[in-house]
Design a protein that fits this description.
Blueprint lengths: L35 H11 L3 H8 L4 H12 L6 E5 L5 H10 L4 E6 L2 H10 L6 E5 L12 E7 L8 H10 L1 E12 L7 H18 L3 H13 L3 H10 L3 E8 L4 E7 L6 H14 L17 E4 L4
Parallel strand pairs: 1-2, 1-4, 2-3, 4-5, 6-8
Antiparallel strand pairs: 5-7, 6-7
Helix pairs in contact: 3-4, 6-9, 6-10, 7-8
Length: 303
């Protein structure tokens, strides 16, 4: 007598499927090698632990860095700003506080999970809006804002020049573009911070159940261009008067550029076309030229 056939499906013969893939954190000559959708999905997964881990891995310095970047935006009461890669909305909220009364701030992020947290956290604040959007094609018209900021987001973009050019596009002439980003410090004291970042941050991520995402964080910082090169990229994107400052021994930098006057619509289109064309240009990968004195705003003492 034979047994009846088993109606249950046979177990898969190959290895068990793994979880969602984490971007590598590597960079091309243009920017981050990962697709924006991959980066957005990763930030969706870590959105619930993002803020507390940010505090820990920055040795509780992140609020100070954020306040300094917002100050460089120079927003006045009644002013308007856009915060790109806005995450859970803290920079946008600080900008909004600077623009009161009557100001408007738009926070844009590719991660619905992060934007959801920002909307819940700042619900009911008139003039503070959060939307899901792409930094490569910002959902705003030309010359709309007095300032644009991006904090810890530029190294996640697939095209640094285009990212800065888009920020410049939506800011009025004379307005500021501000970039706060983690850097690779070169001072002796900063080597301790580099060791902490390279070795301890991935461990903290694993303890929080997000080891892959925080290993990505380390690799993306390692692949990010030096501050001198970022200043060049901002100029290539059409910004003028570019300056930068290192904070906490150089573990972070703040770059500031100004949107130049628009001579006419044709000049404006030519500037944007040139900036986007440069994103396809070949760079040697070496950025050994030191910043001139005019490039550096100054430095603060380490932690």
């Amino acid at each position: 007598m034979t047994n009846p056939p088993d109606p249950r499906p046979a177990p898969p013969s190959g290895p068990a499927p793994s979880g969602p893939a984490t971007p590598s954190g590597r960079a091309t000559e243009r920017g981050n090698a990962a697709a924006p959708t991959e980066v957005g999905a990763m930030f969706d997964r870590i959105s619930g632990v993002y803020d507390p881990l940010n505090l820990v891995i920055s040795a509780f310095q992140e609020p100070r860095w954020r306040r300094r970047a917002v100050a460089f935006a120079g927003l006045k009461p009644g002013g308007r700003a856009i915060d790109v890669a806005s995450g859970t909305g803290k920079v946008a909220a600080d900008l909004h506080a600077s623009a009161r009364p009557g100001g408007e701030v738009l926070g844009v992020d590719i991660s619905p999970g992060m934007i959801g947290i920002a909307r819940r956290r700042f619900v009911g604040q008139a003039g503070l809006t959060f939307v899901v959007g792409d930094a490569m094609a910002l959902p705003a018209e030309d010359d709309r804002f007095d300032a644009a900021t991006i904090a810890f987001g530029m190294r996640n973009l697939p095209d640094y020049t285009r990212g800065f050019a888009e920020m410049a596009r939506v800011v009025r002439p004379g307005g500021k573009v501000v970039c706060l980003e983690i850097a690779r410090p070169r001072s002796r004291v900063a080597r301790i911070m580099r060791w902490w970042f390279d070795r301890i941050v991935p461990l903290i991520g694993r303890v929080a159940g997000q080891g892959g995402a925080y290993a990505y964080l380390v690799r993306s910082v390692q692949s990010y261009p030096a501050p001198e090169r970022i200043a060049e990229v901002m100029r290539e994107a059409g910004l003028v008067g570019v300056r930068w400052i290192g904070m906490s021994g150089g573990i972070v930098t703040i770059h500031v550029g100004t949107v130049p006057p628009h001579d006419d619509d044709d000049v404006r289109r030519d500037r944007r076309r040139t900036a986007f064309a440069l994103t396809g240009a070949s760079h040697s990968g070496r950025h050994d030229t030191a910043a001139t004195h005019d490039d550096v705003l100054g430095d603060e003492t380490p932690w």
